[in-house]
């Protein structure tokens, strides 16, 4: 994968990104073929690159959210045409604006799958993940190259909880959360 400076270079990296995601899924010994790929995310550390990508993404779809999450702006775009990442497709792209972190490269960073659960809190999400993929946490722990992070990002006005479990390998990540972005964004807008 290369350092992406615009949408064209990002698109060139899609196949390599999908390969890395599939490597991570293989290490975890899980198959996400039946899950909905909710969105794909880009990571940048250069504000000029981020702003340029924001303009290009807006020309390919609609800016649906400009929320502040954990102190920084995150833009969510609904594209006019689905983006294919490996065997999955999604209309949604997340573009976080840079904070203090510097990444080894600016490009695709994670995919996030919807994993419905009976209770939409961290305990419920963990149980749903364990039911869907028995032994996933033990396998991740055995792989010293995989890190697991549980978080509960909070956006002002958001009415749906958004617990997230992330599995990171090298410079890519697979995440799971209980609600599609479209529902989360709608919850922010409702009175």
Automatic annotation (TrEMBL):
Pfam families: YecM. InterPro entries: DUF991_YecM-like, Glyas_Bleomycin-R_OHBP_Dase. It comes from the Bacteria. Gene3D superfamilies: 2,3-Dihydroxybiphenyl 1,2-Dioxygenase, domain 1. PANTHER family: DIHYDROXYBIPHENYL DIOXYGENASE DOMAIN-CONTAINING PROTEIN (PTHR37519:SF1), PTHR37519. This is VOC family protein.
């Amino acid at each position: 994968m290369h350092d992406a400076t615009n949408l064209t270079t990002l698109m060139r990296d899609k196949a390599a990104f999908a390969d890395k995601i599939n490597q991570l899924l293989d290490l975890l010994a899980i198959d996400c073929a039946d899950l909905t790929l909710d969105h794909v995310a880009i990571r940048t550390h250069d504000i000029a690159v981020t702003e340029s990508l924001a303009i290009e993404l807006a020309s390919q779809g609609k800016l649906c959210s400009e929320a502040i999450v954990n102190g920084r702006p995150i833009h969510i775009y609904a594209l006019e045409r689905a983006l294919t990442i490996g065997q999955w497709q999604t209309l949604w792209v997340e573009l976080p604006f840079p904070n203090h972190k510097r990444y080894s490269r600016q490009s695709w960073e994670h995919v996030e799958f919807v994993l419905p659960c009976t209770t939409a809190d961290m305990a419920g999400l963990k149980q749903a993940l364990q039911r869907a993929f028995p032994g996933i946490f033990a396998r991740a722990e055995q792989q010293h190259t995989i890190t697991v992070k549980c978080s509960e990002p909070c956006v002002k006005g958001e009415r749906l909880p958004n617990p997230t479990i992330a599995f990171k390998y090298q410079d890519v990540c697979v995440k799971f959360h209980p609600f599609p972005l479209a529902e989360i964004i709608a919850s922010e807008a409702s009175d």
